[in-house]
Amino acid sequence: MAAADVQEIQCKSLLNRVDIPNFPFRWTINPYRGCRHACTYCYARPTHEFWGMDSGREFEQRVFAKVNAPAVLRQELSRPRWQGEAIALGTASDPYEPAEAQYGLTRRILEVLAEFRNPASITTKGVLVRRDVDVLQQLHQAAEVQVVFSVGTLDEKVWKQTEPGTPSPQARLEAMQYLVESGIPAGVMMAPLLPGLSDGWESIHTVVAAAAAHKAQFLSANLLFLKPGSKEWFMPLLRETYPHLAAAYSRLYHKTYPEQDYTQRVLRVVNEARRKWQLPFATPPRELKSAQGQLQLAFSA
């Protein structure tokens, strides 16, 4: 994979409000735009189109680092109207993508959150999160924090072809176990489950068993969805690597989301495995719980 071009930018604001009904979080932070993890299905790819770039190679190789993000966040959390609601990191770009090793923006953001005793959740495929266990411990003691590791499959071929820039699923599980043993709430989001590749009984049970063996404290799942901008990139790669699945994907994804009947069938298998291994659903930190009850984290990384 070619080296990424990381461009330093200044942001005017960092907190993003999510106004989608029944969504599991209202506020998000993304210290980076673009992601060298290069997941072929990534739903965040279309965000690069807002910058006049394509959602394919440029999303993977032109990364933007918001170098003033920690300072901007401190200003935003200092405002009298801020109520200390939980913040989700990793909704449009992995906060532990490779650029984090150079810039440390996520770590400094966590330090600000700990300073203000502001709860947060993190979703990642990265293992650099191990570096920040000290700050995560401080944040968890001051407020509440949760780390969600995205692990959809343990199949090496599927992983390498669909998530070519990520650490191995096994490395992610080991990082999760390290956090749990260090007192940090952490678990697995099986996302996205890929039709014909990682949605089968054996594949799902294998991941859930491995999550339990590595001391996951919770587990949930989400099915692949293909937004415009992501679909145009993913489908040609699918036809190249798994041509026998192309026709089925075209039928299943004539819209953004697969049919509910299919989704429910797969999630029933996940729940069966989850109950077998006595893993609870993932639930967001307390400020992310809706008035109607606890909402499952249901988004892919």
List the helices and strands and how they pair.
Blueprint: E1 5-9, E2 16-17, E3 27-29, E4 32-33, H1 57-61, E5 62-66, H2 69-77, E6 87-89, H3 99-103, H4 105-115, E7 120-124, H5 133-142, E8 145-150, H6 156-162, H7 169-181, E9 186-193, H8 201-213, E10 219-223, H9 231-241, H10 246-252, H11 260-276
Parallel strand pairs: 1-5, 3-6, 6-7, 7-8, 8-9, 9-10
Antiparallel strand pairs: 2-3, 4-5
Number of strands: 10
Spatial extent as radius of gyration: 18 Å
Q: Roughly what percent helix?
A: 25-40%
Multimer state = single chain
CATH topology: pyruvate-formate lyase- activating enzyme
Q: Largest sheet, if any?
A: 7 strands, mixed
Instruction: Summarize the helix and strand pattern as letters.
Output: EEEEHEHEHHEHEHHEHEHHH
* Shape estimate: globular
Amount of beta strand:
5-15%
Number of domains: 1
Termini separation comes to 20 Å
Poorly predicted regions: 287-301
Examine the secondary-structure arrangement and name the CATH architecture.
Answer: Alpha-Beta Horseshoe
Number of helices: 11
Secondary-structure-based class equals: alpha/beta
The largest beta-sheet arranges its strands as 2-3-6-7-8-9-10
Q: Assign the CATH class.
A: Alpha Beta
Mean pLDDT: 89
